[in-house]
Structures are given as structure tokens and as C-alpha cells.
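Below is the record:
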Amino acid sequence: METGLLPEHWSTLPLDLVYTSLEETPQQWSRGRQDHGFLLDGERSVVRPGAGALGGQEQLAPLQAVQRAMRREAFYRSVIRSWRVLHIALALLTLGLTIWHLVYALQLLLPGMLRRF
């Protein structure tokens, strides 16, 4: 039964072991391609229409679970990617403001210190 939660053993992993790459996944590579069929050119389907219609739901359920898992993974990857961009932007902003503050403080302090000498 799928609960939508991560497996229990994942919660005990340190965050650096759960690192996700920013590279595109093979699923994202194939999105740009227009070839989504499983049959090669010139091949014909050997499945007769209506054959196995009763067992279709049992076969379709695991595929739907995999699709849901892939959508969740894509969502988590986009959240992680967005967080990393925001984190880098905040780090650069912090660095810039720190440098500005030091320069401003030195502009106020240096004239007074130079007059003493």
C-alpha cells in the first residue's frame, strides 16, 4: 500500500547521503523528443483489441503507482533545484552586504584614525 511518505529507512539517512543531482534525469531528456511509442517504425501491435481487457486494471495499477512516484520525484527535484538557486542568491546577497558594511565602517573610522597620526 502506498502512503505517499518516504520509506522509514530514508528518515535515518544524513542529508548529504540524500543528495540529488541537478542534472536532468533520463525521463526529462526524453520529454523533448516526439517519439513516445513503444513500437518501432514498421512494426505492428500483436495485441488483439479487447484481449485481456478484464486483467487490464490489475496491470495498470502498478504503472499508475510508478507514474505517481515519478511525478513526486520530479516535483521534489524542482523544489530542491529552486531552493539551491535561492540559497546561492542569499549567500551572494549576504556576502555583498557584508563587504558594503565593512567599506562603509572603514570610511567612517579611517579619517578619525588618520588624524591621530
Notes: Residues 59-117 form one domain. The chain has two helices and no strands. The two ends are 79 Å apart (CA to CA). The mean pLDDT is 76.
